[in-house]
Design goal:
Layout: E1 2-6, E2 11-17, E3 24-31, H1 33-37, H2 44-62, E4 71-77, H3 81-98, E5 102-106, H4 107-113, E6 126-131, E7 136-141, E8 147-151, H5 158-168, H6 175-184, H7 207-219, H8 225-253, E9 258-262, H9 269-281, E10 285-288, H10 298-310
Parallel strand pairs: 1-4, 4-5, 6-9, 9-10
Antiparallel strand pairs: 1-2, 2-3, 6-7, 7-8
Helix pairs in contact: 2-3, 4-10, 5-6, 5-7, 5-8, 6-8, 7-8, 8-9
The chain binds 5'-O-[(R)-(carboxyoxy)(hydroxy)phosphoryl]adenosine (KG4) and zinc ion (ZN).
Length: about 325
Amino acid sequence: MILSIESSCDDSSIAITQIKDASLVFHKKISQDLEHSDFGGVVPELAARLHAIALPKILEECKPYFKNLKAIAVTNEPGLSVSLVEGVSMAKALGIALGLPILPIHHLRGHIYSLFINRPNSIMPLGVLLVSGGHTQLLSVKSYDDIEVLVTTLDDSFGESFDKVAKMLDLGYPGGPIVEEFAAKGAKRFSFTVPMRGSKKLAFSYSGLKNQVRLAISESANLDEQKKADVCYAFQKCAVAHLIDKLKIVLKEHAFEDFAVVGGASANLYLRKEIEGLCYREHMRLHVADLHFCSDNAAMIGRCAIDAYHLGRFAKEISVNPKKSF
Ligand code: KG4
Ligand code: ZN
């Protein structure tokens, strides 16, 4: 079995995964949403302190599995440096105490492997739309090592733009699920323009859309619940349309038989529905992770670690790389 640790942002999580059949034996996650909600975003110093409390609590429950472990896996990149350090320190200490090797895991690769939790085989080659709080990327995934970035964002990420809109509307944190909920109650009142529509440039951009929302809010008198819902409705529609626009351009050059959406924001049901339609029209099979494995978790790190284990990716030195994207 592999014990995996995830602490790259504001979720403390540990999982135990069976190497032989990829079955998830144990998984627990303690989120810090409540603690950060007063600040409208993650406060790194607070996140690190909370990891230092939560991780040992979860580890206590893993003790019965210690004798079955073959390796310790840990997210070491990318993420908040002070948060990553908490998980990496615990992994190092466990490695020394139990005499086990360490497998450093890239957080974004972990999100891709969220698709294969509890499944012994992975599906590759695969086109992947990765939408998280820090990243918005369209990837061509051919193997564990062969991952090509086809499109990335010039500024804000998809998930981050939801967080910022929620903050502007004073709806709480994390913004994604709340904005989605409000959007479902909204109607057509505002109309925002889809970023970069008509441009063939292969890039995402969310800062312009965010500013359109800011302007609409400042020009709107009496921003009641219904108007807030209407802002969310128009924003979500545009944000997703932008992803679909760029995807359509990429699909002209890259024919994928299998396509996936991963990352925290892949839990958005409106996004899933739109991608489903696109996949149907383009004759691609769509793959998504279970809803509770979309946001950060150690189960995806453990599943990814099985391939790292078979490839012998054990760390001699383990470093924390906060900015390391694909
Ligand atoms: O992957 P994740 O858990 O953490 C990072 O690696 O960043 O993604 C978190 C991001 C946040 O920005 C959150 O607002 C967004 O995913 N998110 C959503 C939804 N659920 C989470 N965005 C849109 N709609 C959602 N339902
Ligand atoms: Zn993530």
